[in-house]
Design goal:
With 278 residues, this protein is of the alpha/beta class. It has a single domain (3-276), classed as Ribonucleoside hydrolase-like (Inosine-uridine Nucleoside N-ribohydrolase, Chain A), CATH 3.90.245. The protein has 13 helices and eleven strands. It has helices spanning 13-23, 42-55, 74-77, 101-108, 122-129, 155-159, 161-170, 178-181, 188-193, 196-199, 203-212, 221-230, 265-275, and strands spanning 3-9, 28-35, 63-65, 114-117, 136-140, 174-176, 185-186, 218-219, 235-244, 250-252, 255-263. The strands form two sheets. Strands 3-2-1-4-5-6-11-9-10 form a nine-stranded mixed beta sheet, sandwiched between helices. A two-stranded antiparallel sheet has the order 7-8. Bound molecules: beta-D-ribofuranose and calcium ion (CA). Beta-D-ribofuranose (BDR) binds next to helix 1, helix 6 and helix 12.
């Protein structure tokens, strides 16, 4: 039986890849997307989530609009969150299903439901604060001694450190940190082989990384986390004792957290390439 999956997301180019991976994987049943501010503001992340589902032929999947906030990574993901190419995706006639993620989780979480949180953790912290237990929570976020927004803070944790603290301290997450996702690069060859509508979203991101590194592709951070929801065991994990500081950096602490440390990237890359080819 397919694994029920809710994705909490701020699309976002790598979020788009993660959503497409889930939408095209029969191992999971996409129960809904909850949106959050992050890479761009909430109105755009919600619109992008709706459009992506419409493009993927999955307009029936409900989209619930969550929390707004101040962060932004338009320099990486483009002003519209999808490399200036959101307009290439169709409108979704369904519109948003609701604007209360806590209610949506309360109504839709079952004992087998997996939640992949691939944006700032504001919605997820609100769900935990409401006393709702998430049976399996996979989070893309954090870095062990490594950041991508400040020297020590990863974007999703930095965007709402208090929410990241709640999740690390009380959410029993499996986290997928930068240390692993920085090894998971969709390079030019990969991007030339997948659905051209998806690879067309990556221009701004590729240019941003090419300006700063030898990287000729994009990091598929969020898709790595969602791959673990689709095929459990894809990521090799180890338990660490961690916390999050007030600036959003993952630090040593007292909370047991499962951390994804390794994967067979050639195999995962082949899996993603096949699923994202349409
Ligand atoms: C995370 O931040 C966002 O920019 C990406 O979508 C990903 O979720 C990587 O740090
Ligand atoms: Ca994201």
């Amino acid at each position: 039986m397919a694994i029920p999956l809710i994705i909490d997301t701020d699309p976002g180019v790598d979020d788009a890849f993660a959503i497409a991976l889930a939408a095209r994987s029969p191992e999971v049943k996409l129960v809904g997307l909850t949106t959050v501010f992050g890479n761009v503001g909430l109105e755009l992340t919600t619109r992008n989530a709706l459009r992506l589902l419409a493009y993927l032929g999955r307009a029936e999947v409900p989209v619930v609009e969550g929390f707004e906030g101040p962060a932004g990574a338009a320099d990486v993901h483009g002003e519209d969150g999808l490399g200036g190419q959101a307009h290439t995706l169709p409108d979704n006639e369904k519109g948003v299903y609701g604007d209360d993620p806590v209610r949506f989780f309360a109504d839709n979480l079952g004992p087998r439901t997996v939640v992949a949180a691939i944006g700032p953790l504001t919605n997820i912290a609100a769900v935990l604060d409401a006393g709702i237990e998430i049976p399996r929570l996979i989070v893309m976020g954090g870095g062990l001694g490594l950041g991508n927004t400040t020297e020590r803070a990863e974007f999703n944790f930095w965007a709402d450190p208090e929410a990241a603290q709640t999740v690390i301290r009380r959410g029993k997450p499996l986290i997928v940190p930068l240390n692993l996702t920085h090894r998971c690069i969709a390079d030019a060859e990969f991007l030339s082989r997948i659905d051209p509508v998806l690879s067309n979203l990556t221009g701004t991101y590729r240019a941003y990384l090419a300006d700063r590194s030898e990287n000729q592709g994009i990091y598929v951070h969020d898709a790595v986390a969602v791959a673990e929801a689709i095929v459990p065991g894809t990521l090799k994990t180890r338990t660490h004792l961690l916390d999050v500081d007030d600036d959003g950096a993952l630090v040593e602490g007292n909370h047991q957290v499962e951390v994804a440390e390794d994967t067979d990237w050639p195999a995962l890359r082949a899996f993603m390439e096949q699923r994202l080819s349409g």
